[in-house]
Write a structure and sequence with these properties.
The protein is mostly helical. The chain has a domain of 61 residues. 86% of the residues lie in helices and 0% in strands. The protein contains three helices and no strands. Helix 1 packs antiparallel against helix 2. The protein is elongated.
């Protein structure tokens, strides 16, 4: 039984990080932009209400999940299917 090359695991880790970035960016980027806009409005108006930032970000994240949730699920499912398909290669 010979060992699997470390390059194989590095490739899997790189692919996992790429899938993670693709899966989280449609949610995190709009939430970040919303937080920045609300923060600038709060700084300009001197309103320091904590719920003012929470509610719009919650709405934006919910909308993004509704819009992109199916694509994110397909992306993660394809990655998982690919990982399971690679298991026999590890046994060689």
């Amino acid at each position: 039984m010979d060992s699997v090359a470390p390059d194989y695991f590095i490739g899997v880790a790189q692919q996992a990080l790429w899938v993670l970035a693709l899966a989280t960016s449609p949610i995190l980027i709009p939430a970040l932009v919303t937080g920045l806009i609300i923060g600038m409005i709060q700084a300009a108006t001197s309103i320091n209400e904590q719920t003012l930032t929470f509610i719009p970000k919650l709405i934006v994240v919910s909308l993004c999940l509704a819009l992109f949730g199916g694509a994110i699920l397909l992306l993660v499912a394809d990655f998982t299917r690919d990982m399971f398909a690679r298991i026999p290669d590890l046994m060689r």
